[in-house]
Amino acid sequence: MSETASLTGRLLLATPSLGDPNFARAVVLVLNHDDDGALGVVVNRPLDVDVAAVLPGWQPFATAPGKLFQGGPVALDSALGLVAVPGDRPDPVGVRRVFGSVGLGSVGLVDLDTPPETIVQELSGLRIFAGYAGWSAAQLEGEIAEGAWFVLPAEARDAFCDTPQALWGDVLRRQGGDLALVASIPRDVSMN
User: Fold this and answer.
1) Is a pLDDT exceeding 50 seen at residue 4?
2) Which of 37, 34, 27, 13 minimizes the C-alpha distance to 129?
3) Coil, strand, or helix at residue 36?
4) What's 169's DSSP letter?
5) What pTM value is reported for the model?
6) Can you say whether residue 138 is alpha, beta or left, with left for phi > 0 and alpha for psi between -120 and 50 degrees?
């Protein structure tokens, strides 16, 4: 796969035609995409579970609402930590940059075995995800070709926004044009 074809750092927004309830109106941040497949986390599904229930040491540093997020249907018993690193800082110890750059800010994965106190001063956002979304080789490309996903640019703040339940519509509206209109489609089109 050429580097320009990689979707790493992009958002996948479920189209209204995507029938899988795991992904209805989902906003997925792609963390890795290559010839072997893709991996991402759903960034707009907070659970009614505090981070402390799974990782008590990280609770004080979790971005509001301080809840665990359902990252996807795969490996729900595992946790991934996503962090925002401010613009002028290099990656802190225990953080691997996913996208962005020094100077502009970046999003990275944090090693949750790292003591939080050693790195939180260098972060501007933290979310913990239970599970992830995964696709085998060429599976995601097939779903995109079938019209299941809108592929859109991500902003570093998307994964840490204050209103994650509104993110699907917010991202569509900021695109303008026809995509902005999609944001107003009701969940149940029979209600239209």
Assistant:
1) no
2) 27
3) coil
4) H
5) 0.92
6) left
pLDDT digits (tens, 9 = 90+) for 134-159: 999 999 999 999 999 999 999 878 99
Residue 23 CA to residue 27 CA, distance in Å, equals 8
- For the chain, how many residues are written? 192
**Do 59 and 79 form a contact (C-beta atoms < 8 A)?**
no
Measured CA to CA, the distance from residue 56 to residue 118 in angstroms comes to 16
Q: Which residues contact 115 (CB under 8 A, 6 or more apart)?
A: 57
Q: What is the largest CA-CA distance in the chain?
A: 52
d(CA 40, CA 53): 23
CB atoms within 10 A of CB 163: 10
Residue type at 90?
Answer: P
Query: Residue 182 has what DSSP assignment?
Result: H
Amino acid at 78: S
Domains of the chain with CATH codes: 3-191 (3.40.1740.10)
